[in-house]
Amino acid sequence: MSDPLDFTEPGADQPATAEPAAQPVATEPATEPATVPDAETGTGNGTGEAATDGDGAWDGEGGAGEVVDAEELIAERPPRESPYDRPGNWYVVHTQSGYEKKVKSNLESRIVSMDMEDSIFEVVIPMEDVIEFKGGKKVVVQKKVFPGYLYVRCYLDDRSWEVIRNTPGVTGFVGTGGKPMPLTRRDVEMALSVPEETEDDAAAPKRGRPRLEYEVGETVRIKEGAFADFTGEIAEINEDQLNLKVLVNIFGRETPITIEFSHVAKL
Q1: H helices within the chain, ranges in order?
Q2: Deepest of 28, 37, 57, 160, by most Cβ within 10 A of its Cβ?
């Protein structure tokens, strides 16, 4: 019996269900790589990236850049030589004041004549630059750091001690209990003017700033003017105006007096 709801004629074939037609896929147009123009030529490398060499380093003006570690630069810098690191030890020898150069010459002659070059290496008179004022002008002169003393670098034994001690003009070694004492690194480098090393010390070491002949707190004698032969303490130094402010005791009171450098003398 036929289904009353089926309106299909008996014996009629069912029509095949048609598959929907495939829609064509839209094809995106090929994108050209962006070209970055060069600052100088106006052309680019066609990649949109900065120009590099084969290992990825920046290719600057016609060449590959080199990256250097700051620590490597510091490691490559040769250490500054210190006189303390030279062979032997440094000792201080007392001499007759004012005869330092003569005693130095005598000792150096004895070192050669007595064949002591392998034990006594160096004899030095420590010097420093000092600013003096002469004729209203500032001049830099060299003066002895320790008048009456020599610095001697040597291997000290009985033989070298005898050669040094018996040099004409030498009055003895500096030490404790009559025993010569070698100097420390700090003492050697301060006396022989080794500047401190800084981070931007790439060039050769420069000489330090010259020391003024006078210092604040030093007592001086006035040579000229209304206060001639008075003594006083330096309270202020005016290097630009070439004068000093000296505290002079007048009637029991300290009175500041401004006076030229050339009008005072050391005690």
Answers
A1: 70-76, 100-113, 158-165, 185-191
A2: 160
For residues 50 and 58, what is the distance between their CA atoms, to the nearest angstrom?
8
3-state helix, strand, coil in the chain (%, to 5): 15, 30, 55
* Ramachandran assignment for 251, one of left (phi > 0), alpha (psi -120 to 50 degrees), beta (any other): left
Q: Are 234 and 217 in contact (CB under 8 A)?
A: yes
How many other CB atoms are found less than 10 A from the CB of residue 154? Answer: 24
**Residues near 209 by beta carbon (within 8 Å), at least 6 away in sequence:** none
Higher pLDDT, 216 or 46: 216
Which pLDDT band holds residue 64 (cuts at 50, 70, 90)?
A: low
Task: Please state, in angstroms and rounded to a whole number, the distance separating the CA atoms of residues 126 and 183.
Answer: 14
Give the pTM: 0.54
Closest CA to 108 of 169, 39, 199, 27: 169
Q: What contacts 56, CB < 8 A, 6 or more positions away?
A: none
